[in-house]
Structure formats: C-alpha cells, structure tokens
Design a protein that fits this description.
Blueprint (H helix, E strand, L loop, with lengths): L1 H9 L3 E6 L9 E5 L5 E3 L20 H13 L12 E6 L9 H12 L4 E8 L6 H14 L2 E9 L3 H6 L6 H13 L3 E8 L6 H13 L6 E6 L2 E2 L3 H8 L7 H14 L6 E3 L9 E3 L6 H12 L2
Parallel strand pairs: 1-4, 4-5, 5-6, 6-7, 7-8, 8-10
Antiparallel strand pairs: 2-3, 9-11
Helix pairs in contact: 3-4, 9-10
C-alpha cells in the first residue's frame, strides 16, 4: 500500500491535504462532445456536485488552503510527532485540475509543491485535458523541486459501452495517448478504476484490471474505488428508479482480492475502496463504516 511505501521513503507517515483548484470539467460545461454529437453537461453520472472533492479545503489561496487542511489532518496525528516533522501530499482532487490555462495551474501547483513539508504533488485530471504544455509544466515542477509529481487519471473502466453510460466523455485511445505522454515525461501515473458500475459483469471488471496489469510501463499506482451512489447525481436518480446490484462488504472484499492477484506484485495500491460523505451516501450503506471496511480489507486482502 502507498502508506507503507511513503513511510519507508520518508521515515514517517505521510498525510494527504485535499486542496481545490477552482476548476470544472469539460463534460460539465458542454465542451465535451460524444461521437454522436451529444454535448455533455453535469459531469459523469456518478460524480457529486462537489466533483468528488467534498473533503477539500475551500477555494482560497493555496497556502491558506494548505494551512486549513493541515489543521484538519493534524488533529489525527499523534502529538509526539512535532509539527515541523510532519509530511504531506498536496492533493488536488476535485473536478479536472488541468482544465484551463496552464499558467494558472502552474502558479497554484508551484505554491503547493514548494511548501517545505509537502513531499509530493498529486493532480487529479482527465486524459483529454492534458495538452503538451501542461505535461511539460508538470515535468518541470518535478525537476525543479526534486519532488514526486503524481497525475491521477480517471479511467474507471475499459468497457466503452459502460464509459458511454456513465458519460465519461472520451474513448480508450485518448487515455492511452495521455498515459504514454505522461510516462515518457517521467511522471508517476495513478489510474483510478470504479468497481461495480451499473451494467458491468464480473468479467468486464476483471478485463479492466487485466488491462492495467498489461500496461507498459506498469502504472505508478492504482486506485480501486467502490461505486458509491451519492445524492444529487444522475446515477442516484437511476438507482432510486430501478435499483441495480451492489456488493455486500464480504463480496466486495473477496473481489478486490481477486483483482489484486491479477496485478503485478510491484504495483503500488493507493486505494482499495474509498468512502463518500455520509450525508450524501445512498448505497451501499456499509461503505460508511470506514473502520469496519478497513478491518475487512486487512483480513481478506492482507492490506
């Protein structure tokens, strides 16, 4: 798991600071157009109003966001670790954090990565929002500051029919092109996958995992995300009208173990499930019991 990898590298536990860039997404504002000419609005069907960033700090100057996020995170850190010895990842999670002028993002990312206690910059984005100048900017930040720069790509699935249903808004070759350019630039790519998307069979999900296992070079990291049905999303409306199957905790943990067995041993796992905000969660309700879920994953998956 990534927590152990970072602890070994930096000699202490490293904590994520959830930040926001104030960006939106091309499939929220109508910029993204499907092959049949349909313009997408409102984002992917599973994505909440907050763009999956409900835990992020308010949109303020980056250093102020970091200070606020640190106060929240530091409350969980043992007091025996002095404040000056704590280490963090600056994580721009919500929406698409390269959708807009490259120079605007450069200023924000530089303010984050230059913080003396930040050891890595993590940028969540879409593969169709990575022009060459943005890839160059991220590479330059890595080289200038000598710190890790991670780019998290939301693949979700390799099944094109599922991708169309969830309004992902791009075809698999777009992902493959972005992945190649990012890895050629020496950047760490973390691939985000959602398990139990509506309409996906067990074999569909395993096909996505096998695809990740066969990527060359191997991914810098993988996030496995349990599908959360969140209030206010298009998927929530569909689920409430006609509920589809979601796994029990035991079923999910067993399937995740099967997925992990397909991935190369050196693959760094950044997430095994994920937890949406309890006030928005419709299903599966067991996902809200984070401690129970973590204990089950440790028991079944060995993580």
């Amino acid at each position: 798991m990534i927590s152990e990898v970072l602890k070994e590298r930096y000699g202490t536990k490293v904590y994520r600071l959830a930040l926001t860039s104030g960006a939106t997404c091309p499939n929220r504002d109508g910029t993204c157009v499907l092959p049949d000419g349909t313009r997408l609005y409102g984002g992917c069907t599973f994505c909440s109003e907050g763009g999956s960033g409900e835990f992020a700090a308010p949109f303020l100057p980056v250093r102020e966001q970091i200070d606020r996020a640190r106060r929240r995170v530091d409350a969980k850190i043992p007091a025996r670790i002095p404040a000056e010895d704590r280490r963090y990842i600056a994580y721009f999670q919500s929406f698409t954090n390269t959708y807009g002028p490259t120079e605007r993002f450069r200023r924000m990312f530089e303010e984050a990565i230059s913080h003396p206690q930040v050891v890595a910059l993590s940028v969540g984005t879409r593969p169709d929002c990575l022009p060459e100048e943005t890839v160059d900017m991220l590479r330059n930040l890595k080289e200038t500051y000598g710190k890790d720069v991670w780019v998290e790509l939301g693949l979700q699935t390799v099944n094109e029919e599922t991708a169309a249903r969830i309004h992902r808004g791009y075809m698999l070759p777009v992902f493959e092109d972005a992945y190649r350019r990012l890895t050629d630039a020496g950047l760490t790519v973390i691939i985000h996958v959602i398990l139990y998307l509506p309409g996906e069979s067990r074999e569909d999900m395993l096909s996505t995992i096998r695809y990740l296992a066969d990527l060359d070079p191997a991914p810098g990291g993988v996030k496995l995300q349990l599908l959360n049905i969140l209030r206010g999303t298009e998927m929530a409306a569909a689920y409430e009208a006609d509920p589809f199957n979601l796994p029990t905790l035991d079923e999910y943990a067993g399937f995740v173990k099967e997925c992990l067995n397909l991935l190369p041993a050196e693959t760094v796992i950044h997430r095994l499930t994920g937890d949406g905000p309890k006030k928005l969660l419709i299903a599966p309700l067991w996902a809200a019991d984070k401690k129970r879920v973590i204990n089950k994953m440790r028991c079944i998956c060995g993580y």
